[in-house]
Amino acid sequence: MSNTEQAPVETICETGDTRCGIEILEPREVPLGGVRAMPVRRTLPQRKRSLIGAWCFLDHYGPDDVSLTGGMDVAAHPHIGLQTVSWLFSGEIEHNDSAGFRAMVRPGEVNLMTAGRGISHSERSTAATTILHGAQLWVALPESARHMEKTFEHYAPPVHSGDGWRAQIFLGSLLGDTSPVATHTPLIGAEIHLDSGAELDLPLDPEFEHGILLDTGELSIVGGGSGDASADPVAVAVAVAELAYVPLATRGLRLRAGSAGARLLLIGGEPLGEQIVMWWNFVGRSHDEIAQARADWQALLASAGVGDVTPEGHPVLPDPLPQPIESNRFGLPEGEPEPPLPAPPLPIARLKPRT
């Protein structure tokens, strides 16, 4: 997914105070491209907290009637220094990338794309989709992996269940299951359902910080602080679309659903321990690196014939489209119905990170 803000701010991201109690992070609404601009609710990054482990971006969207919102229609765009994690509750999205992977994103199946030093991809909801509902997340790659070659993985995790709960573990290890999907820092990603009034005592790795996004229903969290649910009980209510941050040294939580039950996403990981600079779709370490990535992308568009623009500012590509240019680190996906997205302009003054 692309960050389609017209004036994205370069943001320096680092781990904050991770030993405070449970924090509630409220979302902000952001329009996601297209004429009708499908709205998404963004909880990461934000001024209060930039990272949860290596998770650095979380958009939550739907349920949206695509006949009204237009659905998802994000043309080819670039990424560096991150992994994208796509997870759906309903609907279907077609993914197409410059590493040669074309795949469908379906409910209960994770698609993980590793950008490394550079990739481009598009995402579009399919004609068969009526209701689109899901989450798009980014994971910042550590210094040891951020210059690797682009790649892609798909995985349909099994459903594990217990008394009043069901879970799918799509990254990392939890509740006796381990995902085979490769990550480059210790991470956890899972979808958990709770029946009406159900409780789940959830063991957590105390070396991880965690985030709990409530998708539907009613949820309260018992536990947090510096201990486990029984030793240091704190009850926190979480509203739909809010992200609850759970600090390091938390060994367990009790998740308690209301009468409507609850469906949530759990993310977490060891603190990244590195500062990252995010701007548009790039995760780097400095202004110069971000500026170079933008220049490389714009050079690729120019070499592919992008030059003229419509009155609305959209690029115009020749017909037929040229083949992807292998010498550029990003490349272009094949068979695209629309021209790729140009990068927003950098500010006139040198970008200065903000905390």
Concise structural overview:
The protein contains 2 helices and 25 strands.
Span of the ends, CA to CA = 24 Å
**Strand share of the residues?**
35-45%
Shape: globular
Order of helices and strands: EEEEEHEEEEEEEEEEEEEEEEEEEEH
Contiguous uncertain segments of 5+ residues: 13-20, 225-231
Helix content: under 10%
Oligomer: single chain
Q: In this structure, how is the largest beta sheet organized?
A: 9 strands, antiparallel
The total beta strand count reads 25
Give the helix tally.
2
The averaged pLDDT comes out at: 86
Structural class: mainly beta
How large is the radius of gyration? 20 Å
Summarize the SSE layout with pairings.
Blueprint: E1 11-13, E2 23-25, E3 28-32, E4 38-44, E5 55-65, H1 66-69, E6 73-79, E7 82-90, E8 93-97, E9 102-105, E10 110-114, E11 119-125, E12 131-140, E13 151-155, E14 160-162, E15 165-171, E16 173-174, E17 177-178, E18 187-194, E19 199-203, E20 209-223, E21 235-238, E22 243-246, E23 252-269, E24 276-279, E25 282-284, H2 287-303
Antiparallel strand pairs: 1-24, 2-22, 3-4, 4-5, 5-12, 6-11, 7-10, 7-12, 8-9, 8-11, 10-13, 14-15, 15-18, 16-17, 18-23, 19-23, 20-21, 20-22, 20-23, 24-25
Can you give a write-up of this model?
The chain is mostly beta strands. It is 6% helix and 44% strand. The protein is built from 2 helices and 25 strands. The chain has helices spanning 66-69, 287-303, and strands spanning 11-13, 23-25, 28-32, 38-44, 55-65, 73-79, 82-90, 93-97, 102-105, 110-114, 119-125, 131-140, 151-155, 160-162, 165-171, 173-174, 177-178, 187-194, 199-203, 209-223, 235-238, 243-246, 252-269, 276-279, 282-284. Strands 2, 14, 15, 18, 19, 20, 21, 22 and 23 form a 9-stranded antiparallel sheet that branches. Strands 3-4-5-12-7-10-13 form a 7-stranded antiparallel sheet. Strands 6-11-8-9 form a 4-stranded antiparallel sheet, with no helix packed on it. The protein is globular and about 60 Å long.
